[in-house]
Description:
The structure holds two protein chains of two kinds.
Chain A: H1 5-14, H2 24-35, H3 40-50, H4 54-63, E1 75-80, H5 83-87, H6 90-101, E2 114-119, E3 131-133, E4 136-138, H7 143-151
Parallel strand pairs in A: 1-2
Antiparallel strand pairs in A: 1-3, 3-4
Chain B: H1 19-24, H2 29-37, H3 40-50, H4 62-67, E1 77-83, H5 93-99, H6 101-115, E2 117-124, H7 130-144, E3 160-165, H8 175-182, E4 206-210, H9 211-223, H10 225-229, E5 239-246, E6 252-257, E7 260-261, H11 262-269, E8 279-283, E9 292-293, H12 294-297, E10 301-302, H13 304-309, E11 318-323, H14 328-342, H15 348-365, H16 373-383, H17 392-417
Parallel strand pairs in B: 1-2, 1-4, 2-3, 5-11
Antiparallel strand pairs in B: 5-6, 7-10, 8-9, 8-11
Bound molecules: flavin mononucleotide, iron/sulfur cluster (SF4) and FE2/S2 (inorganic) cluster.
Amino acid sequence: xxxxxxxxxxxxxxFPATFASSLVLPCVRxxxxxxxxxxxxxxxxxxxxxxxxxxxIEEVLSYYTMFRRKPIGRWHLQMCRNISCSMRGSERxxxxxxxxxxxxxxxxxxxxxxxxxxxxxxxxxxxxxxxVVNETYHENMDTARIDALLKGLD
Amino acid sequence: MPGRQLLMSFPVTxxxxxxxxxxxxxxxxxxxxxxxxxxxxxxxxxxxASGLLGHxxxxxxxxxKWSVIRLNDGQPHYLCANADEGEPGTFKDRWILxxxxxxxxxxxxxASYALQVRNAFVYIRGExxxxxxxxxxAVDEAYAAGLLGERVLGRDFAxxxxxxxxxxxxxxxxxSGLITSIEGKRGYPRNRPPRLTVRGLxxxxxxxxxxxxxxxxxxxxxxxxxxxRKVGTAKSPGTQLISISGHIAKPGVYEVEYGYPFAKxxxxxxxxxxGGRKLKTIIPGGISTKVLTAAEIEPLKxxxxxxAAAGSSMGSGGMIVIAEGTCMVRLLQVLLRFYHHExxxxxxxxxxxxxxxxxxxxxxxxxxxxxxxxxxxxxxxxANDGTTICGMGDxxxxxxxxxxxxxxxxxxxxxxxxxxxxxxxLEVLPNA
Lengths: 154, 432
Ligand SMILES: Cc1cc2nc3c(=O)[nH]c(=O)nc-3n(C[C@H](O)[C@H](O)[C@H](O)COP(=O)(O)O)c2cc1C
Ligand code: SF4
Ligand code: FES
């Protein structure tokens, strides 16, 4: 994470001086964007840089669903299965994804291309069902649009 | 649109979210007026007089919350806009963040002036992408234009806004969970008292308001409390952004004037039930509010008192329409899975209760239900009442009791016949 320190310094300057602890979430997020996951060495270095206990960072990593300690596939497909999406077909689309990719939700394809997850409501219920690919929302999905989308992901 | 409009009153275009367009609509003139001619106390008095009710779910009076802050108490005060928008069925704050980010910023500046806040935060749910880019972009524009920072509009008033991203946790939308999250920790809700307006972020007095609550501030200060009260009903002044989804022909975000007829909203404004089906039931304000049947909504008006009289609530405005043919047992299964997943685990009744209810509903859906399961779900729902740190335990109980009360026969049928009377359907295809 050391190469990110100039960025973290800039971020820190925007917060009140007493808010060092608040930087844990944004720094962890940036580390994960950079490396794909958060490694043990990142935790040590970030704890040292912010002057917060190591355990605080570990707790944050285990608490928030968006953070991960292990690498995942190049494309992270996240299907919402909360109520409005289910009512508009997301259970059917999830089954379609599982068959197309040959994996169950929670797994990664052997070639490391795709990781499939289920997520809870993403605030996109009016354009349900929604599939998030890495950071991007794909709304009003159906099987044809999923097939076209998968083809475009290398 | 159903009634008069206060927030969605401009056409959305490719540039309507940008500073130039906002200024052309009169943007930041209210901030200018407030800083030039009003005292902080006058602003809070105006907000109190407007009767504005919070839009985060609990409908708490905004002016009353603000009035707890003691000006000149020698402490820093903080303001947080709650943009966590996690209540399933709710996506209206997203409309403001995407289309009117400067309205939120101007309102937060006026609020910060009224509450003597130097550092304000927008806590936005971690998954949001475009809404984040829009609000962050607007904050950057505002800094470049001298609307944020050391000397706002060249005056002796300093204010910073930081957009803080969550990382996937429903309870971080709860005000005290939000605060622990901004402190860079697990988003555990805290016991109250002390109230957050007394001891909030880093133990300092903190006001947390929903994005939509704050977005109303500019209009109230611009036009006055009296003008605001002319919209809506006496007890529910103004409007509410309702995000409507599920089996509805025209899903989306609608600004509804309080007092507007419920049935007319569904059948005319929103185009009626998807595929011309019959309406079965509606979750009126996010999944934590009790369901209302088609017959129950018929005479109702959309305002707090009417929905409370019918045993439910306007909640967060996340309305979910459920068509005839939908299996309520499967629907409750989705809700209980969600609550179990999101329980932060601090309180025993919530942690154990959510897991227990989830296991029971899974068992029923798996054809292994027992006759006593229905009573058990009632008991666990009530066990949470008032015994937990935050409102989530209660909310799960309300949702469950609401569905059991009205659709008990479906649960009994499922348990007796080991299958759904309605094929287990949640998706009801148009005319399928
Ligand atoms: C479990 C739980 C989740 C909540 N999620 C949100 C949310 O996503 N957005 C929100 O504005 N309020 C949410 N609230 C309500 C907040 O605690 C708080 O009341 C609200 O943000 C205050 O704003 P208001 O007074 O302007 O409505 C939630 C409450 C609970 C108990
Ligand atoms: S009620 Fe549930 S979610 Fe809320 S603090 Fe207690 S355990 Fe956590
Ligand atoms: S239910 Fe899927 S985005 Fe809300």
